[in-house]
Amino acid sequence: MQQQKNWSEYWQKEGEGGDVFVTADGSKQLQLQAFWQKIFEHHKPTSVLDIASGAGAVFSNLESTEQYHLVATDISVDALVRQRQRVDGVQTVVCDAANISLGNAQFDLVVSQFGIEYAGPEAFSETARLLKPAGSLTLLCHFMGGYIVSSALKQELAGAQLCQQTGFIEKAKQLVVAMSTGEKRTVHQAMDVFTEVEPVLAKYCAKVPEGIHSHLYNGFKQLMIKRQHYDQQDIISWLENVQGEVDKCILRLSEMCQAALTQQHIDDIKQRLTNAGLRDIQAEPFYLPKYQLPVAWHIHAKGSKK
Ligand SMILES: C[S@@+](CC[C@H](N)C(=O)[O-])C[C@H]1O[C@@H](n2cnc3c(N)ncnc32)[C@H](O)[C@@H]1O
Questions:
Q1: In this model, does residue 1 exceed pLDDT 70?
Q2: Bridge-based pairing state of the strands 279-286 and 91-94
Q3: 20 to 30 Å CA-CA from 208: which of 91, 101, 164, 286?
Q4: Alpha-carbon distance 295 to 167, whole Å?
Q5: Mutate which of 10, 61, 74 for ligand 1 pocket (most atoms within 8 A of beta carbon)
Q6: Which fold has domain 2-146+260-302?
Q7: Is the pTM of the predicted complex or chain greater than 0.90?
């Protein structure tokens, strides 16, 4: 399954920090941490399920895990391996969020942060099956038009697409090959072609310094500066490897943008949760102080018990 493969590769390589939504310097979003701590303090659950949990972005906010029975599910086994290293005592289950291989009515609290929406609408109905009648549901889901989708992801995605559209990698490879021939004319020709696209990526790196485009641009620049220390084939292999990274990055970021929920999706989800017997269902934009746009939809509901 391509989706599963992409996420597993992400968790093997890029997801080292463990949380997908972090600050510009890569550290935890403290207000998000405070949000989850409050949810746990308020509901005082014993058993908690985190759906599409990644490497433990929610459970890693808990100062102590001893008093809880924590279960994390994700489609990626690699995410859950990382989660077990990060969260003491967590039980993990690899499964699709729309078809969770756990019994009915087991959890006091069911949560998900930027995860359940990747599995489509069925996954929201599944939450009601897993929740105890007196339990609670708290979800933070990608907000279409919100900060993550409109700013962070779109900029990173545009950078990756620019690598592809400019043909930067192919032109860089041609330049490396031309340089190895030592023929002035061939080098000049390759250089002319390369200098058509180099400033385009340079300009974008100055505007958006983080992302695969910047890794490509700055990495290749360094390799060119120190090229006498490298084999031609090593540079070509590095460029081909980055090409693979660019392709995967485009797939994963496009998937993240597609997972974002509109008001219409929210209305459908509320209806599903109602049909599944949940009560007090609410959904509102969720803001963090640093960002002007909403960061997520905050969806919450109570179990079926009156
Ligand atoms: C944006 S990450 C969020 C991870 C984590 N909750 C966090 O906040 O860091 C999305 C997660 O959803 C998982 N995922 C994607 N599609 C899924 C599906 N159909 N079922 C279950 N998990 C899925 C991915 O493996 C990934 O870990």
A1: no
A2: unpaired
A3: 286
A4: 33
A5: 74
A6: Rossmann fold (3.40.50)
A7: no
The alpha carbon of 7 and the centre of ligand 1 are apart by a number of angstroms equal to 8
Closest CA to 141 of 156, 128, 123: 123
Q: Nearest C-alpha to atom 10 of ligand 1 is from which residue? A: 115
How far is Cα 214 from Cα 217, in angstroms, rounded to an integer? 5
Tokens of 274: 């109602």
Report the run of H or E that residue 247 belongs to, with start and end: helix 232-259
- Rounded to 5 degrees, what are φ and ψ at 163? -55, -45
- Kindly give the number of the ligand 1 atom that is closest to the alpha carbon of 118: 16
Closest atom of ligand 1 to 50 CA is 6
The torsion angles phi and psi of 70, rounded to 5 degrees, stand at -100, 130
Average pLDDT over residues 226-253: 94
